[in-house]
Specification:
Length: 289
């Protein structure tokens, strides 16, 4: 049986690790806060007290951590994956981080960058979209693990390519949320029944997953994450740097990056990114900060 060491059992990593247990893998989990490890044990996994403990016997190590410095520390740090895993262990990093950090890690050990899309719901259902960068043989080796947590699993290129595709994903999602938020505030200001509007808009060319999955909660001002504003703010930084590196102009992306930055600066980093609606309502003089 493939032994998996899983590090980072948060909103996404928790249900992903549980799905790996369900698929029959032997999963040992580590998280900085202990309660999340206990949840994995309840789901049938094993607990670890450190990164070293989680990866020592692993064939595959999966990481699902917030940001580039977290992945660098956990993978390359003194007490990290590279220092304690068996030679030849395959790292599957599902975190959303900078493509250059993924490339640097892949120079040091067998590694795939495998960021995901589909949100908490996709993680729970095991229906994530996974964009994978790295070697073809490593991709083939990781396939059973990826298939246990995702339903659309695509090898998109060499190391770092998965992160580049994920950056494009975050650009589309941020822009879409902003336009849905603007549309909802616009409809509210006109006194239109937003529920009826969402229903009919979903059936036409304006239909999209944000409208299907998030709009109702946005109208109710329910912003429990989900995907936190602070993480999307991080991702739009990655998008802007990567666009600059490629010499590509992203005027709408830059605008939405500023709006996300404002929401974060207002102290709303812990809310779901659907909270862009708060900002639109506030800019329109319809709500307090
Ligand atoms: P989260 O904050 O809920 O989970 C991260 C977990 O990592 C936390 O439980 C934290 O305690 C743990 N952690 C942090 N540093 C650690 C360390 N040094 N050692 C051990 N554990 C550590 O975040 P999340 O929403 O699960 O997101 C994780 C990654 O997935 C991010 O890169 C995010 O951008 C990406 N992502 C999130 C979503 C989403 O909808 N939430 C969707 C797609 C991608």
């Amino acid at each position: 049986m493939t032994k998996i060491g899983f590090i980072g059992l948060g909103i996404m990593g928790g249900p992903m690790a549980a799905n790996l247990v369900k698929a029959g893998f032997d999963v040992t989990g580590y998280n900085r806060s202990r309660a999340k490890v206990d949840r994995l044990v309840e789901a049938g996994g094993r607990d670890a007290d450190s990164v070293a403990d989680a990866v020592r016997d692993a064939d595959v190590v999966v990481t699902m951590l917030p940001d580039s410095p977290d992945v660098e520390a956990v993978v390359l740090g003194e007490d990290g994956v590279l220092a304690h895993a068996k030679p030849g262990t395959l790292l599957v990093d599902c975190s959303t981080i900078r493509p250059d950090v993924s490339r640097a890690i892949a120079e040091r050990m067998r590694a795939l960058d495998a960021p995901v899309s589909g949100g908490e719901q996709g993680a729970i259902e095991g229906s994530l979209s996974i964009m994978v960068g790295g070697g073809a043989e490593d991709f083939a080796a990781a396939r059973p693990v990826l298939d246990a947590v995702g339903s659309t699993v695509v090898h998109v290129g060499e190391a770092g390519a998965g992160q580049t595709v994920k950056a494009a994903n975050q650009l589309i999602v941020a822009g879409t949320i902003e336009l849905v938020a603007e549309s909802l505030v616009f409809l509210e200001a006109h006194g239109v029944d937003t529920e009826a509007a969402i229903k009919v808009l979903s059936g036409g060319l304006a239909g999209n997953r944000v409208l299907d999955r998030k709009a109702a909660a946005m109208v109710r001002r329910e912003f429990t994450p989900g995907f936190r504003v602070e993480l999307h703010h991080k991702d739009l930084g990655i998008v802007q740097a990567a666009a600059r590196e490629a010499g590509v102009a992203i005027p709408l992306g830059a605008a939405v990056a500023q709006l996300m930055a404002a929401l974060n600066a207002q102290g709303h980093g812990g809310l779901d990114h659907g909270a862009l609606l708060k900002l639109v309502a506030q800019l329109s003089g319809r709500e307090e900060v």
